[in-house]
Write a structure and sequence with these properties.
Length: 288
């Protein structure tokens, strides 16, 4: 299923943005202090959104793993936003239950009848639900909606281009990949790294690009790949080349560039005879 789900992203992102007028009042308003949380892929979308909203000066936006919401600080936020495809992830539901009754709480999910605590405003992106355990289009559609709410148009043409982008032999053969981002693309780098681990059991890492030279670059060597989402810091490509690793960057919108990384994860899984829809030790949602 995952290939079809990846390919449907341009259409899903458009549909997500079309939902905006109907759900705008459930999403953060300018100036609100916002906490956004989730687990796994959903956490990384939360991280991307938080950095983007902060960069646009629209208000304090903190992203948390749902299990790590700092206890006692709930009242520092005007609104909490949970991202959860399944709507059943235990940590997410527990985090929502803990929030003060007065807090505005929104959940973005793919499932209309998810057991999300009463009082939560639910935004359902049912067209983006998935049959694969590995998340691709739900997560990016949630981010497309959140980006649209910040005034960013859906990167339609780039998303379509990303589906045709050639996966090079260097990428297909790399024994290790380090994904890098800056600002909102750090969440995308985390997500790309998770995708390749989940689907292909590949050794991947992810960092803010400026952190890369503070240690992680020491594993760069021939046969390994460093992949940058968004504009690279000066000198990064040269430093990676000097270490002998391959380097990948793109002028695509970074969310579209994530599609290329998803396709690479699936191609790597297929090449190893793995079923990317059924990653090892994972279930559709983690219910404790
Ligand atoms: C969150 C999640 C997924 C992961 C796996 C287990 O699910 O961590 O990101 O790929 O399927 O669950 P959800 O809360 O978004 O449904």
């Amino acid at each position: 299923h995952v290939e079809a789900e990846i390919d449907s992203q341009p259409s899903c992102w458009r549909q997500a943005a079309e939902r905006l007028p109907g759900v705008r009042e459930a999403l953060p308003r300018d100036g609100e202090r916002v906490a956004v949380f989730g687990c796994g892929t959903s956490l990384y979308m939360a991280k991307a959104y938080a950095a983007l909203r902060e960069a646009k000066g629209l208000g304090v936006t903190d992203a948390f793993a749902a299990s790590e919401l700092p206890p006692g600080r709930e009242r520092e936020y005007d609104r909490h936003v949970a991202i959860t495809r399944s709507g059943t992830t235990t940590e997410v539901l527990r985090a929502i239950e803990r929030l003060p009754e007065t807090a505005a709480t929104t959940a973005i999910t793919a499932v209309p009848d998810a057991p999300i605590p009463a009082g939560t405003r639910t935004v359902v992106l049912e067209f983006a639900d998935e049959r694969s355990v590995v998340q691709t289009r739900f997560a990016t559609s949630a981010l497309a909606l959140l980006r649209a709410s910040l005034g960013d148009p859906v990167p339609d043409a780039d998303a379509t281009r990303a589906l045709g982008e050639r996966l090079t032999p260097e990428w297909l053969e790399a024994e290790q990949i380090t994904f890098l981002g800056r600002g909102w693309t750090v969440g995308l780098a985390d997500e790309a790294a998770l995708k390749a681990r989940e689907a292909a059991q590949l050794w991947t890492e992810s960092y803010p690009a400026m952190e890369y030279r503070h240690g992680p670059i020491s594993i760069a060597q021939p046969g390994r790949l460093t992949w940058m989402f968004g504009p690279a810091p000066d000198g990064l490509a040269e430093d990676v080349a000097a270490a002998g690793a391959a380097y990948a960057a793109s002028d695509l919108d970074p969310m579209a560039h994530l599609i290329v990384a998803q396709r690479l994860a699936v191609a790597r899984a297929r090449a190893r005879g793995l079923d990317p829809d059924r990653p090892r030790s994972l279930t559709r949602s983690v219910v404790l």
